[in-house]
Amino acid sequence: RCWVHKTANVLNRLPKSSQPKAKRFLHDILQTETKVDTEKAFDTFTKTYEAKYPKVAECLLKDHEELMSFYDFPAKHWQSIRTTNPIESTFGTIR
């Protein structure tokens, strides 16, 4: 599952005023360095939003396994395989 598209789907389920904070939160999830840290951040995000915005948490949780699948590959490939967007994927390898 593509993190870029999932982020857009999650944000679309939030009011505009809540989107910038949630976007930073989701971005921070992807900046973690280990699967354990990512899982903790993922859980924190869903717990933060599930009470007030259950559809947001549901949207993220339904693809949990697929979103974490990039950890099945060597770390040097993570940036390019977290997204199906060819531009992001290509430039991710250049960065």
Automatic annotation (TrEMBL):
<dbReference type="Pfam" id="PF00872">
    <property type="entry name" value="Transposase_mut"/>
</dbReference>
<protein>
    <recommendedName>
        <fullName>Mutator family transposase</fullName>
    </recommendedName>
</protein>
<dbReference type="GO" id="GO:0004803">
    <property type="term" value="F:transposase activity"/>
</dbReference>
<dbReference type="GO" id="GO:0006313">
    <property type="term" value="P:DNA transposition"/>
</dbReference>
<dbReference type="InterPro" id="IPR001207">
    <property type="entry name" value="Transposase_mutator"/>
</dbReference>
<keyword id="KW-0815">Transposition</keyword>
<keyword id="KW-0233">DNA recombination</keyword>
<comment type="similarity">
    <text>Belongs to the transposase mutator family.</text>
</comment>
<comment type="function">
    <text>Required for the transposition of the insertion element.</text>
</comment>
<dbReference type="GO" id="GO:0003677">
    <property type="term" value="F:DNA binding"/>
</dbReference>
<keyword id="KW-0238">DNA-binding</keyword>
<keyword id="KW-0814">Transposable element</keyword>
